[in-house]
Amino acid sequence: MAAYDNAPLARYAMAYVLAGGRGSRLMELTDRRAKPAVYFGGKSRIIDFALSNALNSGIRRICVATQYKAHSLIRHLQRGWSFFRTERNESFDILPASQRVSEDHWYLGTADAVFQNLDIVESYDPKYIVLLAGDHVYKMDYEYMLQQHVEQGADVTVGCLEAPRSEASGFGVMQVDHDDRIVAFYEKPADPPAMPDRPDRSLVSMGIYVFEAKFLYDQLRRDADDAHSTHDFGKDIIPYIVKHGKAVAHHFSRSCVRAASEQHAYWRDVGTVDAYWAANIDLTDFTPQLDLYDRNWPIWTYAEITPPAKFVHDQVGRRGQALSSLVSGGCIVSGSTLRRSLLFTGVRVNSYATVENAVILPYVDIGRSSRLTNVVVDRGVRIPQGLVVGEDPDFDAQRFRRTEQGVCLITQPMLDRLAT
Prior knowledge:
This protein is of the alpha/beta class. The protein has helices spanning 47-57, 71-80, 110-115, 118-124, 142-151, 213-224, 233-244, 273-282, 393-399, 412-419; strands spanning 13-18, 39-40, 44-45, 61-66, 91-96, 128-133, 137-138, 156-164, 172-176, 182-187, 201-212, 247-251, 267-268, 310-312, 314-315, 318-319, 321-323, 326-327, 332-334, 337-339, 342-343, 348-349, 354-360, 365-366, 371-377, 382-383, 388-389, 401-402, 408-410.
């Protein structure tokens, strides 16, 4: 390494992405796909953000551990992330749970999902491991986190952000001293501790960890031998290091990537239907909080080859138009109106239909004279002619998955039940 002392630390790092989560709070959206494979932003998947951050940060060795209903995710990774080349010292490994260590269990926890693949990771001989969750939406330069890790001589550096204390119980919550050393770490506590100077806020983990590789290997082997461990980073590995080593917090504001139009550090856990709908609809704002058009920090994905979006008919009451909306390639808006909606690839909206505050996943066909308001429509759904959703809450709740905030999730099996 001496010959490259001034090189970015990302050159010596491997990103290990944990992408096996089910995401059960997304309800039927994860019936056929893992949460990291859920569509987001018109053409991407959620996992593309963690992977793009790693690539844009300069990391060229990436592993992705998959488990729950992984086919859709693996297919996306194969199609969209197959450009890494071994002759450039790059690698991209997809690591499905395959009972590589024991024939009687799959991945038991997040730590076990790394431990079971240690031989593969060690074969690349990285100096640092950047461990990432594959199910959050944000833009971050991991080089800054690596630099802090080395400068402070930490055993583990934990990415963190501030969150309302009322919402922090769903995360790992930490307490830090004046040097950002973590003095206590609680995994999803019922009563999250507040920040010393902000009683209504807590410091929560982003699920991003930096380790020196050899230190991590030792911790994973120690944890694997502990019969009382749940083999989870948040529950076991991080609290152990907090108690016996040096754990340091890295504030997201120090490494968040923002375009000129982005005023605030953007991070979202789109883990519920309401949060997922809101994050997608927010992209239709005149100046959205998340800038997907920033060419300095592109979000890479599988770019499906499609014809341009098409708007047809120009008659009173039958005019193809989209207002404050995002419309992806291959869509046809035929004599219908979109307002504040997001259409993924290949959607067709037929004549006299109105679509408002809607997230429409790929290859949906919306029938004539339909009226859809405040909805998420799953991939490939065929909306029947004249269907009205979003105007009668009680009726909607009888037919579809209706959230507390009034968003209706529509899937094909739900519509099939209506026809029987």
